[in-house]
Write a structure and sequence with these properties.
CATH class of the domain at 9-45 in chain B: Mainly Alpha
Number of strands of chain A: 11
Strand content of chain A: 5-15%
Structural class of chain A: alpha/beta
CATH architecture of the domain at 9-45 in chain B: Orthogonal Bundle
Strand content of chain B: under 5%
CATH class of the domain at 7-252 and 464-487 in chain A: Alpha Beta
Shape of chain A: globular
Structural class of chain B: mainly alpha
Helix content of chain B: 25-40%
Distance between the termini of chain A: 7 Å
CATH architecture of the domain at 7-252 and 464-487 in chain A: Alpha-Beta Complex
Strand order of the largest sheet of chain B: 1-2
Largest sheet of chain A: 11 strands, mixed
Strand order of the largest sheet of chain A: 1-3-2-4-6-5-10-11-9-7-8
Largest sheet of chain B: 2 strands, antiparallel
Number of helices of chain A: 16
Order of helices and strands of chain B: HHHEE
Largest interface: A-B, 73 and 58 residues
CATH superfamily of the domain at 7-252 and 464-487 in chain A: Amidase signature (AS) domain
Number of helices of chain B: 3
CATH topology of the domain at 9-45 in chain B: Histone, subunit A
Helix content of chain A: 25-40%
Oligomer: heterodimer
Order of helices and strands of chain A: HHEHEHEHEHEEHHEHEHHHHEHHEEH
């Protein structure tokens, strides 16, 4: 069997009664039954609740009610996005049994639009990692090569979509956690502008960086989903009241005359020549369609990883202070006193990478080091943001690789934290600057592993990067290739 | 830039205490090496002259956001306590906190 349809096709067939919502959900359940044992992408699957919800949608359609633009579309959520009455673990032992009493904003929006939450996906614990190997529960495999990582931290979400087990999944992106695994799994992954999508109900990691975004087969599906989840929500005071444009209508605009910037900083040492060749071929295609490719410079990009690992860990050390064994989460069985309860509950509940980042973040915020590290990084962040402001004065979009290499073998970087951090070298600066960026498939290397193209736009111009991504996908078929276990 | 900031085991133990993490001796040793390498990498930020650069806390021109101070529905106590590791009636139960000697 070939697996699920994409988002647009599923919604169209359900809305036009060619297929029921129950059949759409059952098709995902069947694909999961068929493939999940090999890939291990999901922490939990809720077939009964999903089928019940599907029946409600089918009943609404039978009664002539509009079931919403995403009618009957099964979706998966990264397991750091809360949905009521379903475990939300962040792939951490400290939240192993946590069941949130409320729905995230994106869950409310998706449900109101007719989508059906079917499963929760594996991830690096608390979204800290680039390979999904830091999951506290199990490792996820890349559908293109089961000895390779799917990327991370949203690796369960991207592997599930790549294997056509689910039409779409949602991830969170703090330093590349949607785009990097999307590239490594050969799917489309969008990180919206900081403030575009409410994080209410997303378990916080780096609050000045985190965004929720869709992971799909193509840019059209990403546009459909972003249209549903974007917009102001008073429960996330950083979400912005900026108007939500018609992302789907913008897809078909011609790209003639569009100015695309390329920066030497994305093509330096460490970039696999096969990745570079595929990205440059994409630029040739844009030129052939009338876009203009211009050299730009982002002079502070080489400091982005260092800046990020101060800012993100500082924020994480503060956000993760709430896991204290008191109100929810793991509590050590026999504490000697309250401080011991905190320290042992946290020690027992958190994995190695989470502890490392809490330690680093606490260090850079601690007395005597705050100015030298934290304040310094905030100033460097200004320089990185200004690089993008200057670049977008002369170009409309910036094109680059997503990652320096294709998917790497499981275990290759898991003992070297710094090497793992550098896997995000091309994605981190978009989070620091707050700009939107999308990863789309643009080819394969000699080992038949997918290569990603990153398109970065100015603040709140998701319409523009989705337009360019869609135009690329209309002219190429990289995004339609399926890994062998999901062959059509 | 704090180039002189050498990370040793005693500093790591201090940070572990601030972090409320009961690390084992092995973890302290391993963490000392790992944090030294990461901080060594981060030290490259010191190459940049940022004397006249304002800090960016986040990337949007959003500052204070106010709302009306109105009563809205919230969780009842059973819902709020639904994930409690230990509860007693309508309270979260914790070990006693007085006379432990370390209130840091």
């Amino acid at each position: 069997m070939s697996g699920v349809l994409n988002v647009a096709e599923t919604a169209r067939t359900v809305r036009s009664r060619k297929c029921s919502a129950r059949q759409a959900v059952q098709s995902a359940i069947n694909a999961i039954r068929d493939r999940e044992g090999r890939l291990k992408t999901f922490i939990s699957v809720s077939p009964d609740a999903a089928l019940k919800r599907a029946d409600e949608i089918d009943a609404a359609i039978a009664h002539g009610r509009d079931p919403g633009p995403l009618a009957g579309v099964p979706v998966a959520l990264k397991d750091n996005i809360c949905n009521r009455h379903a475990a939300t673990t962040c792939a951490s032992n400290i939240l192993r049994d946590f069941v949130p009493p409320y729905d995230a904003h994106v869950v409310e929006r998706l449900t109101a639009a007719g989508a059906i939450i079917l499963a929760k996906t594996n991830m690096d614990e608390f979204a800290m990692g680039s390979s999904t190997e830091n999951s506290g529960f199990f490792k996820t495999r890349n559908p293109w090569n089961e000895n390779c990582v799917p990327g991370g931290s949203s690796g369960g979400s991207t592997a599930a979509v790549a294997a056509r087990m689910i039409p779409a999944a949602f991830g969170s992106d703090t330093g590349g956690s949607i785009r990097q695994p999307a590239a490594l799994c050969g799917v489309t992954g969008l990180k919206p502008t900081y403030g575009r999508v409410s994080r209410y109900g997303l378990v916080a990691f780096g609050s000045s960086l985190d965004q929720i975004g869709p992971i799909t087969v193509d840019a059209r599906d990403a546009a459909l989903l972003l249209a549903v989840i974007a917009g102001r929500d008073p429960r996330d005071s950083t979400s912005v009241a900026e108007p939500v444009p018609d992302y789907v209508a913008a897809l078909d605009k011609p790209i003639h005359g569009l100015k695309i910037g390329i920066a030497a900083e994305y093509f330096g040492q460490g970039l696999d020549p096969q990745v570079e060749t595929a990205v440059r071929a994409a630029l040739d295609l844009f030129r052939a369609r009338g876009a203009e490719v211009r050299e730009i410079t982002l002079p502070h990009m080489k400091y982005a990883v260092a800046c990020y690992y101060v800012v993100a860990t500082a924020e994480a050390s503060s956000n993760l202070a709430r896991y204290d064994g008191v109100h929810y989460g793991h509590r050590t069985p026999v504490p000697s006193d309250l401080i011991d309860l905190y320290a042992r509950s946290r020690h027992e509940g958190f994995g190695a990478e989470v502890k490392r980042r809490i330690m680093l973040g606490t260090y850079v915020l601690s007395s005597g080091y705050y100015d030298a590290y934290y304040l310094k990084a905030l100033k460097v962040r200004t320089l990185i943001r200004r690089d993008f402001e200057r670049a977008f004065e002369s170009v409309d979009v910036i094109a680059s690789p997503v990652t320096p290499t294709t998917a790497f073998p499981i275990g290759e970087k898991s003992d070297d934290p710094l090497a793992m951090y550098l896997a995000d070298i091309y994605t981190i600066s978009a989070n620091l600057a707050g700009v939107p960026a999308i990863s789309i498939p643009c080819g394969f290397d000699a080992k038949r592993l997918p290569i990603g193209l990153q398109l970065t736009g100015p603040w709140f111009r998701e319409d523009r990067i989705l337009n360019l991504a869609h135009q690329f996908q209309s002219a190429t078929d990289h995004h339609t290739h399926r890994p062998p276990l999901a062959a059509a | 830039m704090a180039r002189e900031s050498k990370i040793d085991e005693s500093l790591v133990r201090h940070v572990a205490h601030l972090s409320r993490l009961a690390l084992t001796d092995d973890e302290i040793t391993r963490m000392t090496g790992e944090l030294s390498a990461i901080v060594g990498y981060i030290d490259q930020l010191g190459e940049l002259d940022t004397a006249d650069v304002p800090p960016t806390a986040h990337a949007l021109p959003v500052h204070n956001v106010f709302r009306e101070d109105e009563v809205t529905p919230s969780f009842d106590s059973d819902t709020a306590l639904s994930n409690a590791p230990q509860r007693e009636g309508t309270f979260f139960r914790v070990p006693k906190i007085l006379d432990t000697g370390d209130g840091a």
